[in-house]
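Quick question: what would this complex look like in 3D?
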Amino acid sequence: MTSAQSLAVPANDNPIAMSGIEFVEFATRAPDAFGGILVKLGFRAIASHRSRRVYLYRQGGLNLVVNADRDTLDGLDLPADQAVLNAVAFRVEDAGRAYKTLVESGAWPIQTRAGTMELNIPGIHGIGDAILYLVDRYRDFSIYDVDFQYGESPRHPPASIDGLHFFGLVHYVDIGRLDPWIDFYRQLFGFTVLPTGQSFGILPKGVILQSPCKLFYLQLIPPDENALWDVRWDERFARLAFGVPDVKAAVTLLGARGVPFEERESFHATEKGALTQNLYGGMNFEFVLSRRDADE
Amino acid sequence: MNLGNFGIDLVTLTGSLEIKLREVKAAGFSQVMLWARDLAEYPAGHEAAIDLVKRSGLRVAGMQVIRDYEGQAGAQHDYKTDLAKSHLSLCRAVGAPLLVVCSTTNPLPDDSERFLERDLRKLANLAVPMAVRIGYKAVPWGRFTRSVQDAWDLVDAVHHANFSLVLDTFHFLADQSSVNVIDEIDPDKIALVQLADFSVFEFHNRAELRDRAIHMRVFPGQGVHTARLAEILRRIDRIGYRGDFSFLIFNDDYHQLPPPFALEQARRSVKWVTDQVLRRSLPLRVPDRAR
């Protein structure tokens, strides 16, 4: 079955009233080392969770969470020197309603772990061990104000690269599982498949889905047919991609800060996109040519 | 088609889970269909059973079975959803890539039919993060979905890449369904073909059918419907199906004898299917015990 056939039944345009990404979370046993990488990318550590080893990094309108909480790590098969993209929080109009819609349509609810006086952020299980959170408090009131304690640095550090925004997330899918995952995202959230030939950046593999809010993308990548069959190919989020209006300028700026980019023939930096080298424990980041108002 | 595509449904065999797995492997088969109860009833607990299956070296083609899932409302729907989730968790734990769902037989009110697509689509979604595919199968005494045509129409309507059809040759034979439906089916939407013939010519009513279905199945090539069964298999082959076949033989005779008896019938049946029906000769692996 091809992706095109899967598209024959249109889903609701935006069934959970999604409106972009509130935060992306990474899990690691070495939050300081991994945080150091985020700082090189221009993020600032601005707050710590009140009751857990969870840290908030920010630049411009982008929030990254570094989770080194024991309970989280216990549930992951994560070696000491690795980091994984562990969760994504979608901005939605009404988190309770979105959660109910998703669960009624076949999403797996996560167990709530909120402590006393902490926010209970609803979420569902995504690919691999990842969680997809639903956040509706992102305008006048912030979820971080309740659960996090701010440090002395400014709460709203500006973006270090003009026009930096969340562009999308890449995830790996196993053999024969591309179409089921496409239907999962299409039916539960209203993602749509971009036509063949439309691609971004320098790694045009797999299938690209556009979010119903049209503010970000998911790239689903099955194993390369030429890859060895014994290569381990876990279904999981692989990396985060940032959008920037000038990739070369971003690469120059970050390079000067000590962020190395891939220079191999097959995926060296171009004006369309760039891929960092492995920055920490298997984690790299992608930069993609994309223009968007920073406030979106 | 090759021997690697043929597996045994463990309900066909007698004995403990250890014995079944050991004998299946010794007979040269490489895959099995499990039942959730194979794991649940294991004396040392389901986790030990999962470990046993994983260490057996056999591929798990899928797991049986959810019944009476779709079409319910309110608390019954929630209960069935929870049950389905437990099945899916077991599938993930044991590495079963397919969960078989039989069409509901509950005496539901007529207007419940409007829930079928919704419920099955939900199940298809639930199964995606668990790396499990849902295979839907008509049972002739079902409430709404009785024939292969009914089941295919519903699979087509649910229209989810994670939701496919399970064909059971017994059902074509039991209710004399037209085999022409096979030509309509997208072979990629067939998750599994379950193989059986049976030893009686015809059934007079659904109650008799239901009763005999779980007692009088025989291996293909040994029943009284071989010509029709051969036609079914040739059609399935002709549309391009290259997936798994599973011998699903509920038979009181086999249930009185040790597994090697039924497994020998299974080996003969593979040969009948490949040589007589599909005219494809293939080398059978020499059983371990014969070496």
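Answer marked as accepted. The mean pLDDT of chain B is 90.
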